[in-house]
Amino acid sequence: METTTSSPPGPRTRDLPLLLFAWAALGVLLVLCAWRNLSVPGLYYDEAVFGHLAKDFLTGRASLQHMPGSRLVSLFGRPFPLFVQSYLGALKCWLLLPGFWGFGATLAVMRLSMLAWTLLGLLFFLLGTRRLLGLPAAVAGGFLLGLDPAFFFISVCDWGSVVPSFVCRLAGFFFALKGWQERRARDLFLAGLACGLGFFNKIDFLLLLAGCGAALAAVYGRPLVEELRRRPALAAWGAAGLLLGGGAMVPGFLRLVREALGGALAAGPGQAAEKAGTLRAMFDGSYFYRLMEHGGDFAHMYGDSPAASPPVWEPFGLVFALAFALLGAVALRGRRRHAPQRLAELLLLATVLVLLATWLLPGAIRLHHWTLVYPLPHLVILAAAVWLWRLPAAAPAAPRGLRPLAVLAVAAVLCGHLLAIGKTERLLADTGGRGLWSDSLNAFAAAVRTRRDLTIVCYDWGFYEPLAFLTDGPRLAEPIWSLLAGHRSAIPTAPDVIHLAHPPQYRVLPFSAELFQRVNGADPGKVEITQYTDRQGGPAFYAIRFRG
């Protein structure tokens, strides 16, 4: 299997300090960019669920309720999370434990912990890209990926367990490349382990493994088979790591396969349009701006209203498309398949297969699904830039402007990244997050954090998990899961009960309608309704109490 390298092993070792310096500089920049995100936007339900489980283990608290499909075991007499849902392992909970143990279970620590793990993943990416394309491309690639708005915001406010996936895939990329180049079983075991843990973290990681695996087989199949025949232990160690890391998810995967064959996972109406919108917004840098502008109202993020056309656009998608076309020309050039051609074929085919698999997967409509393709688009841009840079040396008749063009393209993407992040951060500063992301829920939680005399009933999705993480005193109830199962219960009207509900534009489930009917039919003097708003005065949620 051929790969391009910029220098022999000796110089590679000597340039390691430069790579580490660039990585540290990137880390400082990302922390500075993310500093205000330690409090805004507000804590989102799917972000909080992992912190809730991790906090319960450290405190020994046994919550009365968790999401359906979660699995916990007793470890040292405490509830240790194994699965958050049937398709979602508790790897992210485990990654939060060191930070919570050392600095406390707070929102700021949660988000800094995710950013710290992201930086570890970026180090693996720099190390792997240096082996593949050389040091300059590795440094540029670290900033291209780390400052990508889709990558950056989800690395801090991770609501889809994406950060563990990032770390696993970037570690797998580095160890697989290193293990193959040096024929080291240990590194291939670590690559398999990282990929297995990525699959355990979330079952859709299989799309990335399948797409990249099929591309490797198509481009490097013969040399791979020949080498593994000579050294079968390499394959055995890689498979052992994969099984160790992901074996616990196999029963859940088989169950999903049976459900898919039975038609239970069919795509719902409108998914194709939302997938197209998500893909476009991921590549033009506007996804998080749209998400914060609409307060988590995914259904209206891509409409024709002025709010659905945000003042955020960057050339990442355009440069990627041009780089993709250039690598396509490189792959088709000549009959002999040299290393640059094979690398171009691999990157292009892997990117297409992963994007196609995500498109075909029912329910894969949000950003945390589509970033499965990362960092392949960034590697496509880097490989094209490296090819342009090297072409004048290989072909003296080539135009002289190719090297400045390569630098300009990468610089344009980086500037676009920073502008998109800056505009999104200004929106967050102005609003504190809207709707389901509003920091007003954080303020409410702070006010009732130790109130053991209160019961808080959450009549819609979006409240329970953030409050379970942010509070220690109130009793919490989330009847939505039993209501979804068809079980009805009376609405408690004791004065020590607070009912929470969203306004209509942010309503996820319909069950608060009965609550508002009860409010409308009650004596106005016996009902207290408090509206919590974002920083611009827009409604975020209502807290309702009956006076008996």
Supply database-style keywords:
548 residues; single chain; 23 helices; alpha/beta; 8% strand; five-stranded mixed beta sheet; globular; three-stranded antiparallel beta sheet; disordered N terminus
Describe this structure in words.
This protein is α/β, with parallel strands linked by helices. The protein has 2 domains: 9-261 and 271-431, no CATH class; 438-546, no CATH class. The protein is 61% helix and 8% strand. It is built from 23 helices and 8 strands. The protein has helices at 9-14, 16-34, 45-59, 91-103, 107-133, 135-146, 149-156, 162-182, 185-201, 205-230, 232-246, 250-261, 271-284, 287-293, 316-332, 339-360, 367-370, 376-394, 402-431, 440-448, 464-470, 480-484, 512-520; strands spanning 71-75, 78-85, 88-89, 455-458, 475-477, 497-501, 527-533, 539-546. The strands form 2 sheets. It has a 5-stranded mixed sheet with strand order 5-4-6-8-7, with helices on both faces. The protein has a 3-stranded antiparallel sheet with strand order 1-2-3, with helices on one face. Strand 7 (527-533) and strand 8 (539-546) form a beta hairpin. Helix 5 runs antiparallel to helix 6 (135-146) and helix 10 (205-230) packs antiparallel against helix 16 (339-360). The longest helix is centred in the C-terminal third of the chain and has 30 residues, at 402-431. The protein is globular and about 85 Å long. The N and C termini lie far apart (75 Å). 47% of the residues are buried. Residues 1-11 have low confidence and may be disordered.
